[in-house]
Amino acid sequence: MPKEDKQTDNNNAYSLEVVWENVTPELAEQAKNLWARENALPRDESVENRVKQLLVVARDANKKLIAVSTAERKRVPELLNNIFYYYRVFVAAEHRNEGMALPISHKAREHLHQRFLSGQDTLAKGFYVAIENSILKKVHTQAILVVGGIDHPFIGVDQRGRYLRVGWFDGAEIS
Amino acid sequence: MPTKQPPEQSNGVTFELVWEAVTPELIAEAREFWVEENAIPENQSVDDRARQLMVIARDTGGKLIGVTTAVRTPIPRLLNNVFYYYRCFIASHRRQEGLMMEISHKCREYMHPRFLSGEDTETKGFYYATESELLKNVVTQAVVVVGGIDHTFIGVDEKGRYISVGWFEGATID
Q: Interface pTM (ipTM) of the complex?
């Protein structure tokens, strides 16, 4: 398992940390507690699997975990079975009006994009996002969303009505 | 009627925007060109296709050597947003010169400013389907920049064609 540099972005409200492939048992417990507290335990998947997918976490000034993002490498049949990071972000209910989801998502892209560009990890070709939340669907009407420096164009709607976006990494090939 | 653009010359080829300004003479010329190249459009009358001409290319003798066509089409998978469904045909003896990319650049360069200026905002970008096995094997980039617009590979259609879409800058999906 590659060792990741811990990075922290501080502002007055919270700090962000990249924990990709470097999830400690303590963090795993904190993430499980967060999901349990928020009644947001992952469906269709074991919690143990989901904690292994932690990518960027956010903590408040007291170091309490308040948001997490996860990514899972998945083949996308519609995109010639290329592998993408299937990305999710969860923010604790009391912090949802602080605009935290976007900085977390920026940081997640910046981290994994750099790994792709450096050749450290070229398996996944970008990010794949399925937006289920009806408010987000109405708010994010831009055909191209730029997240972490990567364009995420709208590419369609799946059978569950989720809005699909794909953010290919620079130089990615479809072969 | 779109703003008239003067023809542009590049390396002995003249490019001309003819979108929504196709004359009967040009229709006849395009028909002759497709017949010569044994490239009569399928499932559509030649004259109808000729009316969709967007940018044409001529050689130094003024003869047609490349044509592009576009038709404004709502794309169901993209929430029925309207795109220029784009096609390009180059004369067989001029296919090794990069003319296809050059004429495709021109189309975007002519049409994108119309969207940005508000002259034509109904159409949100370009949409094309790559059928040629050769092109599928050669053009492997997930994002191809044509005329300054990123064209993203978004999947494969029921005919096995590779679908790419290039949204105009600032386009919305509503």
A: 0.87
pLDDT digits (tens, 9 = 90+) for B35-89: 999 987 777 788 999 999 999 999 999 999 999 999 999 999 999 999 999 999 9
**What is the spatial distance between Cα B8 and Cα B27, in angstroms, rounded to a whole number?**
21
Question: pLDDT tens digits for A72-92?
Answer: 999 999 999 999 999 999 999
C-alpha to C-alpha distance for A81 and B154, rounded to whole angstroms: 12
Which residues in B lie closer than 8 A to residue A173 (C-beta atoms)? 140-142
Nearest to B155 among A79, A126, A173 (CB): A79
Rounded alpha-carbon distances, angstroms, from residue B98 to A105, B103, B104, B137: 39, 9, 10, 16
Provide the strand spans (E) within chain A.
8-10, 14-18, 54-60, 65-76, 82-91, 124-131, 144-147, 150-157, 163-168
Chain B, 26 to 55: residues with Cβ < 8 Å from chain A are none
- Give one DSSP letter per residue of B149-161, joined into a string: EEEEEEEE-TTSP
Task: Identify all chain A residues contacting B162, using CB atoms and an 8 Å cutoff.
Answer: 174
Look at A168 and B77 and tell me if their CB atoms are within 8 Å.
Answer: no
User: Chain B: nearest CA to A169, how far in angstroms?
Assistant: 9
Nearest CA to CA, how far is B147 from chain A (Å)? 17
CB contact under 8 A, B141 and A166: no
Average pLDDT score over residue span A111-125: 97
Give the predicted TM-score (pTM) of the model: 0.89
